[in-house]
Design goal:
By secondary structure, this protein is mostly helical. The chain contains 7 helices and 3 strands. Strand 2 and strand 3 form a beta hairpin. Helix 2 crosses helix 4.
């Protein structure tokens, strides 16, 4: 397992939104590659593994996708595929990291956007 130089799932979330900003549904494997490429992850980071043997970066990207889906910013059109929602487009990708770093308050904000179906910016 070794050291942990992989970005956190919080750090992956804004990049996931940017990767999916074109509105296309993408399989997780494609999202993993695109996010890793955009973040220019070092080869040693791409080789880090969690105790199950899975690559740490893909494990964290999957958690980022799950959190974004829970917040209503992504949808799962089919198993292991994600697509940005209209609400995901509302949340600026540069600010989504801040929302999630705020913890429950940030999640409440994202959930509020989803419940209202508020597709307009203030």
């Amino acid at each position: 397992m070794g050291s942990d130089n992989t970005p956190t799932s919080d750090e992956f979330r804004p990049v996931v939104l940017r990767v999916l900003a074109d509105g296309k549904a993408r399989p997780l494997r494609e999202i993993y590659r695109a996010v890793a490429d955009q973040m220019k992850l070092a080869p040693e980071v791409l080789e880090e593994r969690v105790s199950s043997g899975e690559h740490r970066y893909s494990h964290r990207i999957r958690w980022a996708c799950s959190a974004l889906a829970f917040g209503g910013l992504l949808e799962r059109p089919k198993r292991a595929h994600y697509k940005i929602t209209e609400n995901g487009r509302v949340v600026d990708a540069r600010e989504v990291g801040e929302l999630f770093r705020e913890g429950h308050a940030g999640m409440a904000c994202v959930a509020g956007i989803s419940r209202r179906g508020d597709h307009t910016q203030s």
